[in-house]
Write a structure and sequence with these properties.
The chain is an alpha+beta fold. The protein has two domains: 2-59, Ribosomal Protein L9, domain 1; 69-146, Ribosomal protein L9, C-terminal domain (Ribosomal Protein L9, domain 2). The protein has three helices and nine strands. The protein has a four-stranded mixed beta sheet. Strand 8 (124-131) and strand 9 form a beta hairpin. The termini are far apart. The mean pLDDT is 91.
């Protein structure tokens, strides 16, 4: 029996795939748990249309993210903070701090998209990576100065 998966099912397939399964498996497990739909001709056409729409939206979002990354590659984020005599910060600069500072400069970057090896705890020049998914990343400069 051919079914369209509504969710990922282990050892069967991923969401949106058209797979062939045993009739009893579909009737007794997939359909009651709302994991799949029977693949009628109408549903297959509808599914193909939705797949095309999702692909076009994904491509548009990727191009927008590429434009944002191009602008971000020239950005330097500057923090003025209190530090000790040994240039160690009283506190630290985190991904959330960088995200908020980028938002002040007009960029919408989620804190989970900011990648750093560790939080910044010293004065000076540092690097952070903005990662938007598959092959979409750029480095930004983070400058930490004494207040």
């Amino acid at each position: 029996m051919k079914v369209i998966l509504k969710n990922d099912v282990k050892n069967v397939g991923k969401i949106g795939q058209l797979v062939n399964v045993a009739r009893g498996y579909a009737r007794n497990f997939l359909f009651p748990n709302n994991l799949a739909l029977e693949a009628t001709e109408r549903r297959v056409k509808e599914f193909e249309h939705l797949k095309k729409m999702a692909d076009s939206k994904r491509k548009k979002a990727m191009s927008e993210k590429k434009q944002v990354l191009e602008k971000l590659s020239n950005v330097t984020v500057t923090f003025k903070v209190n530090a000790s005599e040994t240039e160690k910060l009283f506190g630290s600069i985190t991904a959330l701090d960088i995200s908020k500072e980028l938002e002040k400069q007009g960029f919408q970057v989620d804190r989970r998209d900011v990648r750093m090896d560790d939080t910044i705890k010293m004065l000076g020049q540092h690097k952070a990576t903005i990662h938007f998914g598959e092959d979409l990343e750029t480095e930004i400069a983070v400058s930490v100065e004494r207040a």
